[in-house]
Amino acid sequence: MIYRLIIPFFFFIASLFTACVPNKDLVYLQEKSNSRPAQSAIQEYQAQFSAYRVQHGDILNIKVMSQDPLSVAPFNIDGGSGMAQFQVSIPLLYISGYTVDENGNIEFPLVGSLEVKGKTIAEIGALLSSKIEKYVTNATVKVKLVSYKVTLLGEVRNPGVYYIYNDRASIFEVLGHAGDLSDLANRHNVKLMRIVGSQVQMSNLDLTDRKLIESKSFFLLPNDVIYVEPMRAKNFRLNLPTINLILSSLTTILVIYNIVRQ
To answer: In the CATH scheme, what is the code of domain 59-145?
Structure first.
């Protein structure tokens, strides 16, 4: 009888080992090659970053500033000088911002229709400055992309939509905002969905591979969506109560069977 009790217990212990997550599945940016650099060596990687080019549906916050507030008031939607407009909420920026229409244009006061699609934020600022010089000299134009947000889903400690207030953000910076990945996140297969024109591109990222630093996906772009799928170990842990119940029932049946046979 003792052997019949040991068998289910053995399978239970073996299944626990299969649910263990090895260290190599948790560590970011590992050196995949056989040759490892010295601990004190400084390694350099060529990151691929290019300034974001505005697309249809983006929202721009534009402020024109000058030492003479009245001279630039017509260029600001709120009628002000734009000098004290920094502590405002995201919804208010959406309301007061300039949305790029389907033709790639915005309607700017006095200037009229201005084509901005395909241009960087710096190029839009320079273009507006040249237009405004016809009306006001020595004016400063500040252009910000309000709709720079990324979405994190799946095995993230705090999934959700995160707004980025820098010109660039790496995938690890964004994951830091979300409290990092969970221990059961599959770091080898992270899905990145990116809008390019009228298409949605999907790619798989391996966060454990140091080569990620040199890929075009290392820096995220506005409206990127990251989905982190779970490891198989999570499915096992979710079903562990059911497995325990089945093993307990099996053990009980074997015990009763052996008592009846005696």
So the answer is: 3.30.1950.10
Task: Please tell me the predicted confidence (pLDDT) of residue 255.
Answer: 65
* Cβ 136 vs Cβ 71: under 8 Å: yes
Strand 199-205 relative to strand 185-196: parallel, antiparallel, unpaired? Answer: antiparallel
pLDDT per residue as tens digits for the range 203-222: 999 999 999 999 999 999 99
CATH class of the domain comprising 23-31+148-230: alpha beta
Instruction: Report in angstroms the alpha-carbon separations of 140 from 34, 93, 132.
Output: 54, 19, 9
- Give the H/E segment covering residue 31: none
The answer to whether 99 touches 57, Cβ cutoff 8 Å, is yes
Q: What residue type is assigned to position 149 of the chain?
A: K
Which pair of tokens denotes residue 66? 């000058």
Whose structure tokens read 């309000």?
Answer: 146
Q: Strand runs (DSSP E) across the chain, as ranges? A: 59-65, 98-99, 105-108, 112-115, 140-145, 149-154, 160-163, 169-170, 185-196, 199-205, 219-220, 225-230
3-state secondary structure of 218: coil
Q: Give yes or no for a contact between 17 and 248, defined as CB atoms under 8 angstroms apart.
A: no
CA-CA distance, 143 to 189, in Å (whole number)? Answer: 36
Q: Classify strands 59-65 and 160-163 as parallel, antiparallel or unpaired.
A: unpaired
Q: Residues with Cβ < 8 Å from 95, sequence gap 6 or more?
A: none
Q: Which residues pair with 112 in a beta bridge?
A: 108
- The pLDDT of residue 183 is 87
Parallel/antiparallel/unpaired status of strands 169-170 and 225-230:
unpaired
Joined together, the tokens standing for residue 225 give 């969506």
Q: What is the pLDDT of residues 102-146, one digit of tens each?
A: 999 999 999 999 999 999 999 999 999 999 999 998 899 999 999
Domain ranges in the chain? 2-21+234-261, 23-31+148-230, 59-145
Q: How many whole angstroms separate alpha carbon 222 and alpha carbon 89?
A: 19
